[in-house]
């Protein structure tokens, strides 16, 4: 430091003011309407003019913008406009997360389209666990809803928009494809995996660097037919697994377990 110079009084101040944290609002009435797929009350509760059952045809809220929610149509109690995220439960699910995981009948599909038209940025918004509505719909086995959400994304921005949405990973580094692979019904798994693959043929390559790949998960769950199908569809798919493992590790482990089980069964027959 030069002679006579003043020593700095402290760390330099940030040039830009820190952004205020989003205000989280929870609304039981909106949650109930979302779970039942009732578009008319959803439309009113989201502050759209009128209580008609026809979803709006325009994008009424800019990405990251506000959703003006009216809790009661008669009292017209309006939510604090400082809120930037409208959530419905402790998992920070937004209204589209809830609709996507609650059903895939016509009323739920209509509600999903209406919500999307009102606030397009909710289509692939993440909740507390990092899940998007695609994760939620896939995990719940809602095949029609997954297809519907894909169609909404494609209409908005083509294949690039679809891929951007489907490749989003949650806190576990998993995509909607991982959620689909964990479904118990084999036919639903096959149909869901096929739908996701058609939408994004390279979805099996994610996560890119490390973590549990869809192929690793399929093998670890004993879904050999699905694993073979994934490999046939994309020879460039990821082989990675957790903790530095790969598909070969889990394949050998499962094979060893099967041999031990077979030996025990043979001994029991002696």
From TrEMBL:
SUPFAM superfamilies: Ankyrin repeat. Residues 1-22 are annotated as: Disordered. Pfam families: Ank_2. InterPro entries: Ankyrin_rpt (IPR002110), Ankyrin_rpt-contain_sf (IPR036770). This is Uncharacterized protein. It comes from Aegilops tauschii subsp. strangulata.
């Amino acid at each position: 430091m030069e002679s006579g110079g003043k020593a700095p009084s402290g760390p330099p101040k940030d040039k830009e003011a820190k952004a205020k944290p989003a205000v989280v609002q929870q609304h039981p009435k909106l949650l109930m309407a979302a779970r039942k797929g009732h578009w008319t009350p959803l439309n009113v509760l989201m502050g759209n003019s009128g209580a008609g059952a026809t979803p709006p045809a325009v994008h009424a809220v800019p990405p990251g913008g506000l959703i003006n929610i009216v809790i009661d149509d008669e009292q017209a109690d309006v939510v604090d406009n400082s809120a930037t995220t409208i959530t419905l439960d402790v998992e920070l699910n937004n209204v589209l997360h809830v609709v996507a995981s609650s059903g895939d009948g016509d009323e739920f599909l209509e509600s999903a389209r209406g919500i999307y038209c009102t606030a397009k940025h909710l289509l692939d918004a993440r909740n507390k666990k990092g899940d998007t509505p695609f994760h939620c719909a896939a995990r719940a086995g809602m095949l029609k809803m997954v297809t519907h959400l894909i169609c909404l994304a494609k209409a908005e921005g083509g294949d690039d928009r679809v891929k951007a949405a489907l490749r989003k990973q949650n806190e576990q580094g998993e995509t909607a494809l991982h959620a689909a692979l964990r479904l118990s019904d084999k036919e639903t798994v096959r149909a869901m995996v096929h739908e996701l693959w058609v939408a994004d043929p390279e979805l099996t390559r994610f996560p890119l660097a490390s973590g549990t790949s869809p192929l690793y998960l399929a093998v670890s769950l004993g879904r050999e037919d699905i694993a073979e199908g994934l490999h046939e569809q994309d020879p460039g798919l990821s082989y990675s697994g957790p903790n530095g493992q790969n598909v070969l590790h889990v394949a050998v482990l499962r094979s060893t377990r099967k041999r031990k089980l077979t030996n025990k069964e043979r001994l029991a027959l002696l």
